[in-house]
Automatic annotation (TrEMBL), chains A, B:
It comes from Teichococcus globiformis. This is LLM class flavin-dependent oxidoreductase. Residues 26-320 form the Luciferase-like domain. GO terms for molecular function: oxidoreductase activity. The lineage of its organism: Bacteria, Pseudomonadati, Pseudomonadota, Alphaproteobacteria, Acetobacterales. Its EC number is 1.-.-.-.
Amino acid sequence: MARPMALATLVHPTGYHTASWLHPQANAQASTSIEHYAGIARLAERGLFDLFFVADTPAARTENLTAFSRMPLFMNVFEPLTLLSALSGMTRHIGLGGTASTSFGEPYTMARQFASLDHLSGGRAAWNVVTSANDYAARNFGLDRLPPHAERYARARECVDLVKRLWNSWEDDAFIRDRAAGLFFDPAKQHAVHHEGTHFRLQGALNIARPPQGHPVIIQAGASETGRDFAAQTAEVVFASETSPGDGRRFYTDLKGRMERHNRDPDSLKILAGMPVLVAESAQEAEDMHAELQALIHPEVGVARLSMDLEADLSGLDLDAPVPEERIPQKARFHQAYFDHIVGMIRNERLTLRQLYMRYERGNRTVRGTPTTVADIMEEWFTGGACDGFMLMFNLLPRDLKGFVDSVVPELQRRGLMRENYAGRTLRENLGLFRPPHPAAG
Amino acid sequence: MARPMALATLVHPTGYHTASWLHPQANAQASTSIEHYAGIARLAERGLFDLFFVADTPAARTENLTAFSRMPLFMNVFEPLTLLSALSGMTRHIGLGGTASTSFGEPYTMARQFASLDHLSGGRAAWNVVTSANDYAARNFGLDRLPPHAERYARARECVDLVKRLWNSWEDDAFIRDRAAGLFFDPAKQHAVHHEGTHFRLQGALNIARPPQGHPVIIQAGASETGRDFAAQTAEVVFASETSPGDGRRFYTDLKGRMERHNRDPDSLKILAGMPVLVAESAQEAEDMHAELQALIHPEVGVARLSMDLEADLSGLDLDAPVPEERIPQKARFHQAYFDHIVGMIRNERLTLRQLYMRYERGNRTVRGTPTTVADIMEEWFTGGACDGFMLMFNLLPRDLKGFVDSVVPELQRRGLMRENYAGRTLRENLGLFRPPHPAAG
Ligand SMILES: Cc1cc2nc3c(=O)[nH]c(=O)nc-3n(C[C@H](O)[C@H](O)[C@H](O)COP(=O)(O)O)c2cc1C
Ligand SMILES: Cc1cc2nc3c(=O)[nH]c(=O)nc-3n(C[C@H](O)[C@H](O)[C@H](O)COP(=O)(O)O)c2cc1C
């Protein structure tokens, strides 16, 4: 077969749907239960997923707490690197991807921890490089507010470049462990880094061997112009958030097109379409399952989520009337695409506030139906050149992942779109990404 | 029985002895083999050890590489938090302690990662708080050199205080997960931290529930006046490095005496005497095993280790003559106790350079002999009021740990000095440390 589709899943503890934690089948303790996460990772591994992925924000909300208590995203979760390290010993094949922000951390520590995870997992680590998008995280790191978008990306560029150089501190065969000569490493194969940049200064070498993958897989999900350029330059996996195959194709062509400027082969970057999916035995059952979760959304949550992404306070407004024009800010500070999407809905569709938040709820655009329907839609995206694979979100975990693994995966295999077993040992090999050679290697 | 002795072990990949990696029984791949570490942790767990501990320096040497290739300490190792997280799923009872320096990291991230480890392990995390002691680590974090001793400890105090407050971001029962009311947490039970200090600024709450242990166990190993005061104020476990029961008793009395000033019960701090041990069936066999490793020390290594701790370059000197007085610096910048110890040996004993480094090699003071001999010495320290337990170092791993677990542990149990099984679920419970109540708890 041609290259099989890549499959990743974004794992929020009880599921992707804001109200999932309220569902009777949800595990109330999920967010700090390693057994729960291990079950999900093993299930995804049974389904031959390439990547188990966790998002992150290094902060808990401290305001508007009643609303956030109704949608407890990131309020009580494992830290990604520690979580993925624990999972490395509980899984064998699946890639382990986590988010870390370049706006707050130290490059040496990030390089070290991801390299360590790559060694622990035998070459299955991936780093989702984000610049963060809120002030309340910034305040946990000595800042009053998040630096402007352009500055964050400049820092991200410098950080990723530095981290990659740190991963190359040693050539692949530097640690010779030659007992006869009494040399643990070949001194000529260390390449210390000397960096004097705008955001970072560093002189030294990483204290761990070059990662099994050469370097952990770099993921990016930037949607802005700057974000896309950054991805074209450095990312090996991109999570896309387009919602139609047409938009997906345009994004795909645009992003792969940008890579030439950076002398990169378009095949060295895999674009995974973000897609919430829900499969059931019948179309009606899928609708019912979907409606059941939608009905659990508390109005306060719906309004708060909208407020967050519109960057405006919509509380206190009539739920059954449209959002007044004067409540809409002039421009987005944090996330342009979310902002534009909401403003578009308000201006073009004249929805009531309630209709707006139900429509905006991220579970709402769930691709749903029978295994055949879901496989059809995935096939259309994949063979139509809109993606190299999918970043799937499951509204309720582990239920919806299990349904997918048991029914859609075999269907995709029958169609020759998915492999029958893990082809490689490392995440890179499974994704069909080349292993970056060490710059000093002949 | 009275409180049983606490047992910890400091794990360097192939063992504590500088030359251990050269031994035919050493696992050449040890330093990045999780199976190797897991084997050691499980073995220690079989021996009912309280704590598996890894030291750390966030840096690799970049100078004098031939010498360091002959003693590859910290040149190629897992990062502690990722390593311990992986081990959390591979062990059930033993505490997992790791070193992190307060001189370079972000308190929010340190608080988060140790809290996450505590949740992953069901309450088995411990943090060895160090201020680091070399310039080459500082250069990985944007500094030209390490800040002065007093400043490092001031920063450490502020950091530990802030981290503890972050661990108290939520009351123990904050996450009510009340589906009927639709509230995941009780908003009144979040206690956000507002901190404007000398070294750190932070406004926010940790995004993980209060750790199972209330907070992870705080370890310290400061030897200086400032270090001891800091330990008396905040540590719950202290690694001592005295080498005779008399000195041990003096240190013990001094440190526990300092606690009163901080209104702390002496029993809330456990002092573990650092002790390299080697057990064999006969005294002669133990001597032979010891000599075998000592003979593997390369002169370049012996001299480099001395140079490091004397903070002077001793290379090029005649190995069979005493160290000339003019090579001795006026005072130590990094580690006063090591410095004083070496200067004392040079001035008082007139050893040759070769004798000096053989004597100074940390494996040299290994307590060794039959199970009875080793148990006798431990009993003398323990019952004589020189310690609450031991931080044991094994020169060759897993060999020497296995010998200890198989022979000395049963002997200590027969003498009523060690328990027969793990008494508690958490590290705190096993050590007999109380769980810190949340400040807001009635
Ligand atoms: C699937 C997916 C996962 C993401 N995960 C995170 C995350 O974990 N943390 C984060 O701060 N941002 C995350 N983002 C946001 C992106 O990193 C990025 O900031 C956003 O798409 C806006 O693009 P821009 O940064 O180019 O403006 C994610 C986006 C997508 C589509
Ligand atoms: C058993 C033991 C383990 C130690 N582990 C570390 C370590 O992992 N990293 C480190 O930088 N220092 C470590 N130290 C050094 C101490 O933290 C401390 O810096 C040293 O004892 C000097 O004391 P002072 O800081 O009060 O001057 C250790 C010391 C002992 C006795």
